[in-house]
Amino acid sequence: MQGPRQLQGMRGFTFQPPESTYILATMRLKAPRPQRNYTFSIDDTVPPATDINTIMQRGDEVNAVLRMLMDVQTSTVVLSGDAGAGKSTLAALLYRRLELTLQAGLPAPKHFVWLSLGVHTTLPDVIAAILGGLNISEPGFFLLKPEEQIATLLRALRRPQEPLVVVLDQFDTLLDPETLLGLEGRGAVLQFLDMLQQDLGVSRVLLTCYRSPFPGQDLQETRVRSFLVSRISMPEGVALLQQRGVQGTYEDLSLTWQRCGGHAFALVIFSALLRLSGLSLSYLLNAPDYQSLWSSEVPIHLLAAVYSYLNPIQYTLVSMLSLFNEPVPAQGLLMTIMGEQTSVNLAIYEQELKLLTQLSLVQQSVDQQDVPCYSLHPMFRQYVLEHYLAGGTVRPGGVGATSLGVTGTMSPIMEGEEAREVALAAGHMRVAAYYQLLAEKHYFPREKRSSPQDIVYLLAAVRHLCLGWHWQQACDMILSEGIYESMVQWGAWNALIGLYMTMLPPNGVLTRRDEGLICNHLGLLYDRLGNYPLSQAFYERALAVQRKINDKHGQAITLTNQGELFRSIFEWQQARTNFDQARVLNQQLRDSLLESVLLHNLGILHHAVKDYQQAFIYYQEALRFARTLEERYNEGMILTNIGLLFYEQGFQAEALAVLFYTLQLRKSLQYSTISYIERFLTTLEDSMEVDAFASLRQTSREVEEQVLSRLVSPNMRQ
Predict the structure, then answer these.
(1) Could you tell me how far CA 163 lies from the centroid of its own chain?
(2) What is the DSSP track for 239-258?
(3) What's this model's pTM, rounded to 2 decimal places?
(4) In this model, does residue 684 exceed pLDDT 70?
(5) What are the backbone dihedrals phi and psi of residue 168, each rounded to the nearest 5 degrees, phi first?
(6) Residue 289 contacts by C-beta under 8 Å, 6 or more apart in sequence?
(7) Is 33 helix (H, G, I), strand (E, B) or coil?
(8) 145, 315, 326, 398: which could form a disulfide with 392 (CB 3.0–4.6 Å)?
(9) What share of the chain is helix, strand, coil (3-state, %, to 5)?
């Protein structure tokens, strides 16, 4: 090898640790296709309707919030308030106002992003969707550390010529309702909240949530402003009732507003109750039988009354809709209800669904293909889930359920909390069957998958299988369909954590072997996210299970991954102990992939402490085993580290020969991590004089054959 050459300082490039290998975790990372609109796990990207004929325009409140957003000292505005107070509607009215301002050619933000968050939304998905709304492509975004993802977003928000308004509706789905801390497996929410308090330049963020995620803080000392959405005024309340067809004297309408406490959704529920019950306004206000409506928690009492007055078809629609975590097309809803029945009058169901939508008990949106989708109002959905078997008790006269094609209730009539849970589980199995059917119809083979959106139906089926108490079936689907490998390579680590946590005790029940495997996966995922204590805890839990059932292969894999954790936190001796223990187990297993990974990781261990000679020996041995495998992704990682090893020793020409070869290899295998090599080579070139780099590159070509002959057999070269 040639001696070291003089190089100028490589400013702008920080040396990273050598690439490590996690067995059964670091797979071939295929580069995802660029996606302009990333909407995985986002419930909606369009604000709810603000039709002037059915929605109060709340001009004073819109103006007040708009003034907050226009303040140069403001970055974020939080709309908080009770459920049903109208936070989402107020945000939508403001959003539409700004859009119309831009269309009129007046000063307004250049970009608008609306994201309705759901129960499975993760923070990386939110950030990716915002970047997509700005048409910003960030290769390998999901493989970045959480703080790097947030920094990427902050740079995008601060672009001086690209003002943006982002609305994050239902932001509290990311938060624990008691502590207001970020939920486990949803991302670095606290770091994101810290970012919202910084100067965002000309961009603004609007959050809607029940309680502000900035409790106990003096908001005057930050760039966050809070607006409490409480009740609408009496004239607005009376007008809302009239818009919804409620007839009565002004005094009765005013009394209704007063009884509802000016609560917007309570007034909507009341108008729905009038329509469904057929009772008069005066009777509901004055009859002794209905005085309990007007005690404390009026919205809840009104929801109970509405729920009891649903006819059999409405009750069936509402019950099934409550099981969906996301908006669903009418066809999917009816398919879930009917199963394989073909003699059902669907028009009657569609008619009742339309009525429930007109009453605002059901909300309508459109998906990316502009297909109408339906979901329950969040407040109504929560009530239905809590009282799943209690609806439709009044059952007013009309066409019977049997004549409409319903042969029986969706769940057997039982009593008590246990009966409700059994009925919910049975309902979720029907939803799971629907998503499994969609997954088969829109199936993406593993090699053609590019993002979580390609397996969205599989993921939905897995979630509902868990909710239906079929945890083992869900686990089998994750493993057999390659969902784990796909989500790891995309960096969808938080979403995967959420799935796994629903399967493990005490939430679910799995075979002991799968329990150990899933705990090992969780250890790796938390390691990737930088949560080392949780990573270590899950590795230890995995080892305890695997040792108890004498799963030697599982132990060897977990010891290998745990060893990588120890190496990453500089516990060199413990890492070496883990790798040695895994190799002893593998002497019986004779797993070539595992042996290649272990030798590679031992090379990394010696590389990190600058024992270059021993590192090179281990790398060569790892390559020898890697060549016996059908897949070549491990070979690419090993060669990359050998290239870096040569560079650190001062053999720049040899390093470039290996790195340029590896770059082509990794491109052919569609690695998403090729950006690291490209960045290294680009930074190296920028740090040198043009002639000096050209000379170095030419020398690397001259020694390429000699160098590669020591590392790669001729029949394996590109």
Answers:
(1) 26
(2) HHHHHTT----HHHHHHHHH
(3) 0.82
(4) yes
(5) -110, 95
(6) none
(7) coil
(8) 315
(9) 60, 5, 35
